[in-house]
């Protein structure tokens, strides 16, 4: 077989497209800069503690003001169960 005859008949672009390894398309420089500018979410407490606080607040079924009042008045009306009050003071939610 003559190589020159094969090269004339062969569509090299199609051959390369069919048998080449997949490569990610190159990103523009502007896209890279927008990725760098992306701001991460800032959290004061770790995720586990935040989740525990949210669970506690959902179980209390009181407004923030009612919880604050119960803690500051040392819960004279007993709005909060004792174990919940201990958890509220533990997490410093008020």
Automatic annotation (TrEMBL):
Q: Name one Pfam family in it.
A: FH2
Identify one Gene Ontology CC term for this UniProt entry. stress fiber
Q: Which residues form the FH2 domain?
A: 1-94
InterPro entries, sorted = FH2_Formin (IPR015425), FH2_Formin_sf (IPR042201), Formin_Homology (IPR051425)
The name on file for this protein is: FH2 domain-containing protein
Output the superkingdom of the source species.
Eukaryota
């Amino acid at each position: 077989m003559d190589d020159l005859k094969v090269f004339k008949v062969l569509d090299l672009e199609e051959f390369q497209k069919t048998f080449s390894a997949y490569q990610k398309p190159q990103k523009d420089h502007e896209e890279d800069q927008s990725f760098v500018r992306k701001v991460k979410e800032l959290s004061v407490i770790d995720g586990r503690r935040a989740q525990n606080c949210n669970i506690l607040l959902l179980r209390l079924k009181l407004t923030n003001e009612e919880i604050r009042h119960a803690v500051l008045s040392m819960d004279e009306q007993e709005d909060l169960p004792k174990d919940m009050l201990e958890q509220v003071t533990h997490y410093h939610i008020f």
